[in-house]
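__Record contents__

***
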Amino acid sequence: MDPVTLNVVADRYLRLALEEDITSEDVSCACVMPDARRGVVDLIAKGPGVICGLDVFGRVFSLLDRQSQVERLVGEGDEVESGELVAHVSGDVRALLSGERTALNYLQRMSGIATHTRRMVRALEGTHATLVDTRKTTPCMRVFEKEAVRTGGGTNHRYNLSDGVMLKDNHIDAAGGIAPAVAAARVRAPFVRKVEVEVESLDQVREALDAGADIIMLDNMDLDRMRQAVDMIAGRAQTEASGNVDLESVHAVAECGVDFISCGALTHSSPILDLSMKHLRVEEEA
């Protein structure tokens, strides 16, 4: 994550997360460490996976102690094994204790998404399809979760509702059909924006083509119908497959010839990568 995004966008959420966890004081920490002492603790992987979110992890501690430091032993996007030492974290012991859970929550979540994404991307090897995420993200976690998808080798779909035109079934119903929905988008949206239309049948594929859609999303189609849709489109629009895509099915979906495969499970169902902070050492007082 670039420094501007981390310090301007992400900081707002990191501060809220810390405020959620520390409403007045960390009582446990205050009991055992009432005064400032320097210390160091190890960050250890408890399972195999892809590391993502070290910048965010370190930023949590720096918000509590500007002098804190994370000595990385692996890089962002690197794969680790169970028991591997990932980093050393040093700083005011009070910051290490109070920030531990919040920092780990972000790192574990982001690493889990990156791990799941990496597996899905590898399953697509040998095809020309691109794996993309969706807006099915955890509230106030989107900036972190979409970063994790990129780290895992996936690609981001639109970031939010302001980022592109996607006409789904309810938009089409509201407009009175695919043709009027696309026509309205051409009038209202900036010309630099592509118009994507969600379809569920071959008849709707024809309607979207006739209306001049730039991207046609094939929603919840079986493989036979998806292949027919791709043949019908024949390169006149880009194609996106969506709906119930998982690690077992993604390669077969890609072999239908679609350009993009969107997978909500990347962000809404990825298990965390278990990591732990262990072996805290408190420095001797001078």
